[in-house]
## 1
Amino acid sequence: MRHTRRAIRAALTAGRALAAAACGIVELLRYAAETGRNVLMGYVKEDGTQSVRTVAPQKVWRSKAGHWCLRAACLLRGEDRTFRLDRVTALETA
């Protein structure tokens, strides 16, 4: 029982840290969208493929499933794309 409580506490603490990090990412992306700045982003696709993309953020929202999402013009692909923020590995304003 003691180990279970520790595991639950650790998960809650990690969840809070992830939520705080997500809030920072969301605010940075919203700011970039409002000011017209591009963002350099490390991203992992669903199949595990990693890439680095430069995107022009347009909109950030939370999906019905609870995932934070970004709609942005992907300069690598030359079209608008939707990205899940839990798959972003690095973020920097360009």
Note: Confidence is low (pLDDT under 50) at residues 11-18.
## 2
Amino acid sequence: MHLLRLVASQVRLGEPLPWGVRDEHGQLLLARGHVIGSEAQLAALLERGASVDIEEVRAAASRAEAEKKRPASLFAQWEQVLWQLDRALRSIAEPGFAERIDEVRERIETLTLRDPDIAIYLTVRQDPKRLTIYALAHSVHCALVALLMARRLGWDEARKRTLMRAALTMNVAILDLQGRMAAQGSPPTPPQMEMIRAHPGVGVKMLQAAGIADDAWLTAVADHHERSDGSGYPQGLHEVGELPTVLRCIDVFMAKMAPRALRPPLSPQVAARQLYQDSGGAPASAAIIKEFGIYPPGEFVQLKSGELAVVVRRSSDARTPLAASVTDRHGMPHVNTVMRDTAKPEFAITATASESKFVLRMPPERLFGIQE
């Protein structure tokens, strides 16, 4: 075994390691596929003299080269969007920030419209093992929901794009804090709460420094935690515009469905009901709920046949989506996905089902019948 010292540039935070990390004697510290989630964790490894096996590095390079030659699946392209956004947000002090954000927005729009069901699936079926990248996933999910909502309501292009830009940048001031809080398994500390309450204003200053002069964009970011009854923050406003109000609804709806170390996610049905009640049935909230449907893609359901399935496609009737059966009627996993039309009485949905680790381990491409 020929070991090479690990250098920081070889590691992408939040992404699975393409090789194992070893100590100076070759003993395995972190297996291939492990996710290093923070700069502090990486720094600790480097201080310990972390190394990699040169043969594993070469094998990883060969796999990466093969992947480049193979067209990326839609799910892989969505994964790429996360890191495209990460690079854009972290380069806010560099020239061309607005153009980089628009590139992300355009990519999200392209992927969402190419397959809205897969876009919604990603918001519902989130991996609890990737909490450290919560900020990135949350921003992308809010932007795609904003797009679907705006299209359903017939918003013009300018207003739709402004809302998506605001969704992608509303938390730029707490990019790392959000991931830490999602994974820490305890309530926010007083210093963290101070940063949370200040982040809308700090974010606006960062955007202005980056050359953003769009008042609608800036106001949406500044006021996306304000409420018309004065209970919001940071200013406790009683008059809040439409864009920040809609952005707050999307932000809260997505946050409730996201897993945390401190609590499990709410089901789409519960989150939708709370959204509708909180907004008083506002058109934007109603549009989001209609877009997701009763059983949105990603929902885990029990079928009358006894099978457990994951909803993958909406239909014209919100009660009867297409679902991918993942077990037989005895609870044994299917080797291959079996599609079930829940409009057929024998495959009707009888209930939503509890979360299943088996579903998280199954490649989403297999659920949708896409080549892996």
Note: The radius of gyration is 22 Å.
